[in-house]
């Protein structure tokens, strides 16, 4: 994941052979590519086409589906499920911002301040990955339990009054509210923010900080004018790696939320696996894909790091 | 105000460590609750210390079976994705050919796609083909989504490799096969290992794509998911704790080996 931020090599790798490659050599790259690319075409690209055709089909499970170019499915799906779409984007955006706010200090700590503790902290960031994320998400049920210490503390600090007023929690509980879902999303995708941030921070030459200090920049100014701009590639890939999966997630809202926190992923899952309304489900996941691709494209253009991917 | 100054100087460290605590808190809870003896079916409230679950980690019906299915899938998916991905990575870095741009986007897209979308579209394909959902459809799906991560990991490593090393090998009369096995492969190995490790972790832990394409086959994440509705056995926490410990141990050992090697070189 962190390799997404890998900079291009200083030189073009291996200068082409002086004499034109002959015989089998010319075809070598194609033979190397063939199996893997075929796999991706058959099991990634082809399914997308199938799904596109499913989304314009009409019919029923018993009589079978036929392609009737029934584009109204898209309209119906969008007008029925726009609250879930909006909620997904909103939750994912909130989780991404929280991940950035929480993840930046830790990435900075590992890159510049950890010293000999660096490897240990790195292990502690990566190791939770190996405990099933579902088990860890279920642990949040215990942490945020109604009678638990966290809810008590938030209550006595009057934080819940504030979140209630914002509509993020309801009553004296956190579980089954938007706050719990965003908390779970933030937790789940935090490592995907920390790792790219760390890779790009680690690359920054320490002498730049010294230079900034020599030029009488205060620490905060150094951060604002030197460190943060140089870490932009990490910020961009980190936000993408948290926002995209968070927007499509349905595990957190199912385990930590309620029917009022259903995201678009929950709807797609239900339509596909329980209601078996394939055209609607296909249309919904196409809208989600298109929306995310559009947002990502705009975001990458805006942040001016097109060569990133 | 010395305290305020101290606080100012260490603000980053304090916030960083708080984030680390946030990241590790669920693991602590999982470990603590693996020693719990719950009253009802749900293991969310602390009742009483007990070693029962640790004595019989496979005491729950079907849990260890699902664990073994997940392991098998993860191993095969890792092998498949690593071989195919390494080949693609070498082709992309070492050769100029037509359709490089198209290949690059085909590699990038699966990583930029929400899992639900991939899961649903793959299910559409399998349903249209009339494929029997189960072990093999899960394996196919896992190789598909791990592939891109292997390519990125290996590509990064091969790109930073000095091509002159291979020229040197050729100058010393190494044949193409010898050059590849004795020079290229050892240098690319850390990238390949990183890709393989990532594939294993991704495949072993995947829930969303598996949930769509599993049919009646139950992998470990699916077992956990089901148990969240039916009642979570304490053994799930035991497995979770063991996985965390194994991961930490594994990383520690590999770091010690690395340090030794570096010391020998010095």
TrEMBL record, chain A:
Among PROSITE patterns, the record links this protein to: ABC_TM1 (PS50928)
Report keywords, A-Z. Cell membrane, Membrane, Transmembrane, Transmembrane helix, Transport
In terms of InterPro entries, this protein maps to: MetI-like (IPR000515), MetI-like_sf (IPR035906)
Keyword ATP-binding among record annotations? no
Describe its membrane topology.
Multi-pass membrane protein
| Gene Ontology CC annotation, any one | plasma membrane
Q: Looking at the record's lineage, which domain of life comes first? A: Bacteria
Short name of one Pfam family for this protein? BPD_transp_1
Mind telling me which CDD domains this protein's record contains? TM_PBP2
Q: What is a biological process (GO) this protein takes part in?
A: transmembrane transport
Q: Where are the transmembrane segments?
A: 30-50, 89-112, 119-139, 175-198, 226-247, 281-300
> Domain named ABC transmembrane type-1: which ranges?
85-299
Disordered: region residues: 1-23
The record's subcellular locations are:
Cell membrane
The family assignment reads:
Belongs to the binding-protein-dependent transport system permease family. CysTW subfamily.
What is the protein's name according to its record?
A: ABC transporter permease
Automatic annotation (TrEMBL), chain B:
Q: How does the protein associate with the membrane?
A: Multi-pass membrane protein
The record's annotation in Pfam families points to: BPD_transp_1 (PF00528)
What PANTHER family does the annotation carry?
PUTRESCINE TRANSPORT SYSTEM PERMEASE PROTEIN POTI
What cellular component GO annotations does this protein have? plasma membrane
> What keywords would UniProt list here?
Cell membrane, Membrane, Transmembrane, Transmembrane helix, Transport
Stated family: Belongs to the binding-protein-dependent transport system permease family. CysTW subfamily.
Any idea what this protein is called? ABC transporter permease
- Transport as a keyword of this entry, yes or no, is yes
Alphabetized Gene3D superfamilies for the sequence = MetI-like
Give yes or no: UniProt keyword Transmembrane: yes
Q: Where are the transmembrane segments?
A: 12-35, 73-93, 105-127, 133-154, 180-202, 238-257
Domain named ABC transmembrane type-1: which ranges? 67-257
